[in-house]
């Protein structure tokens, strides 16, 4: 059954598809194809294997999905470093696409059979499906279902509303991953595969140097490693600003 979708919704989903295409794992750059609003007319990849579905909320609510080919699934499963998670591999694309719609928080993706994911997406709101092409052939499908309407600033193509303060307010209750880092090094795949119990990996930091505290990979502070109730902790000695990590490396 054909669904009438407002042109402004199609426009913002096309922009989201472009951002997602640039961030999804692919052997070659993915081109954005023509949007489809009738699920029965959607051209699926010949080797479509599975889909990853993720909801998002905030300034806009809805869900997005990526249908991926079997060669990507096989590459992740046969990685020399062990089986890699598909949802984690495509998360950057789902986040990049959803963030073009407004200030949103993207949920963890769920791996589903293609038919189940498409049915779930159709029930989440007004859906638009966008084939992503490699050499003119559909290899991936990106789709978004928006519940309600897109804010006027998004429909007009303006920048994100609200600025930094509004963004921080939106994210105030969102849990973030905090990591303490003692040091780093670089190793070849050959060296990684040769690791065994008892091997020593040298890091790029002298003994006694402060540890870095990172939030989602971004350096925010440095401190001393301490023991609190028989567990490790960090006593903050320095707060750092944007760009400090690049300057320290």
Keywords, please?
7-stranded antiparallel beta sheet, 249 residues, alpha+beta, 8 helices, 31% strand, cilium, Surface presentation of antigens (SPOA), 2 domains, 4-stranded antiparallel beta sheet, Chemotaxis protein chec, 11 strands, FliN/MopA/SpaO
Write up this protein.
This protein folds into two domains: 7-171, CheC-like (Chemotaxis protein chec, 3-Layer(aba) Sandwich), CATH 3.40.1550.10; 178-248, SpoA-like (Surface presentation of antigens (SPOA), Roll). By secondary structure, the protein is α+β, with helices and mostly antiparallel strands. The longest helix is centred in the first third of the chain and has 17 residues, at 7-23. Strands 1, 2, 3, 4, 5, 6 and 7 form a seven-stranded antiparallel β-sheet that branches. Strands 8-9-10-11 form a four-stranded antiparallel β-sheet, with no helix packed on it. The chain contains eight helices and eleven strands. A hairpin with a 2-residue loop joins strand 10 (218-228) and strand 11. It has helices spanning 7-23, 70-77, 86-99, 114-122, 152-155, 163-171, 189-193, 244-248; strands at residues 31-32, 48-58, 61-69, 104-106, 110-112, 126-134, 137-147, 178-181, 211-215, 218-228, 231-239. Residues 170-240 form the Flagellar motor switch protein FliN-like C-terminal domain.
């Amino acid at each position: 059954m054909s669904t009438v979708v407002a042109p402004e919704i199609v426009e913002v989903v096309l922009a989201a598809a472009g951002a997602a295409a640039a961030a999804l794992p692919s052997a070659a750059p993915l081109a954005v194809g023509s949007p489809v609003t009738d699920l029965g007319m959607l051209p699926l990849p010949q080797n479509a294997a599975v889909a990853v579905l993720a909801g998002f909320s905030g300034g806009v609510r809805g869900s997005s999905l990526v249908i991926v080919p079997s060669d990507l699934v096989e590459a992740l499963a046969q990685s020399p470093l062990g089986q890699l998670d598909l949802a984690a591999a495509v998360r950057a694309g789902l986040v990049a696409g959803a963030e073009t719609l407004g200030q949103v928080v993207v949920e963890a993706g769920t791996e589903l059979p293609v038919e189940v994911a498409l049915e779930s997406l159709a029930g989440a709101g007004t859906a638009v499906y966008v084939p992503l092409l490699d050499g003119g052939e559909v290899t991936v499908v990106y789709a978004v279902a928006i519940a309600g309407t897109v804010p006027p600033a998004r429909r007009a193509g303006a920048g994100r509303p609200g600025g930094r303060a509004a963004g921080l307010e939106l994210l105030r209750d969102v849990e973030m991953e905090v990591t303490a880092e003692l040091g780093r090094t670089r190793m070849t795949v050959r060296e990684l595969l040769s690791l065994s119990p008892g091997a020593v990996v040298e890091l790029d930091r002298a003994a006694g140097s402060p540890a870095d505290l990172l939030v989602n990979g971004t350096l925010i502070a440095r401190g001393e490693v301490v023991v609190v109730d028989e567990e490790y902790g960090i006593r903050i000695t320095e707060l750092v600003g944007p760009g400090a990590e690049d300057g320290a490396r």
